[in-house]
Amino acid sequence: MAAAKSWDPASAPNGAGLVLGHFIASGMVNQEMLNMSKKTVSCFVNFTRLQQITNIQAEIYQKNLEIELLKLEKDTADVVHPFFLAQKCHTLQSMNNHLEAVLKEKRSLRQRLLKPMCQENLPIEAVYHRYMVHLLELAVTFIERLETHLETIRNIPHLAANLKKMNQALAKMDILVTETEELAENILKWRKQQNEVSSCIPKILAEESYLYKHDIIMPPLPFTSKVHVQTTNAK
Fold this sequence. Notes:
By secondary structure, this protein is an all-alpha fold. Among the domains are: 20-80; 81-115; 128-189. It is built from nine helices and no strands. The protein has helices at residues 15-26, 31-38, 42-75, 77-80, 82-104, 106-114, 129-155, 159-213, 226-234. The protein starts with 14 loop residues before the first helix and ends with a helix. This is HAUS augmin like complex subunit 2. It holds the Pfam family HAUS2. One of its GO terms (cellular component) is centrosome. InterPro entries: HAUS2, HAUS2_metazoa.
């Protein structure tokens, strides 16, 4: 055996081993009883499991804490991360250099601002020429439509009133269309009547001429002139 047992007389020839050997020889203790004494008591097993559970909970708490720290680092990466801090430092350094250059050329810049910029060419690098062409096209289009856009913005508060006026104008237009259709129908009827009258006039004149030749006096028609009736009476 790897380790000596106090109840094994062969491995540990001490007082306890001699006593156990005497008990086994006399039959008072058997090997099964000795094996039962080797088993771990259940309460100690529960203590071991409790200790394991406590260790696992502590590990879970530690992992959660690490996760919270990682989330916090992610949320504040643009503030505390060295990479972003280096970018911000570089940007601030560029702005500082630009401000230093402006302060050095303060007098010349002031003189240039006081001088009108009319009919002068601004130097632009060749790389940006195509962008400037597109920008000028957009500027021209924007200036052309600026007044229309401003008028549209001014009319936004009066949009409801304008819609109401438009609806009223459409209603009036519908009435005018109806009246125009009725007037057109009346004109067509009047034209038809005029054509009928025009077609009857030659026949009436022929009949009057025939009666005039034979001295036959007929009652005047509703549409004959008074002058003609008086001339017939006089004859």
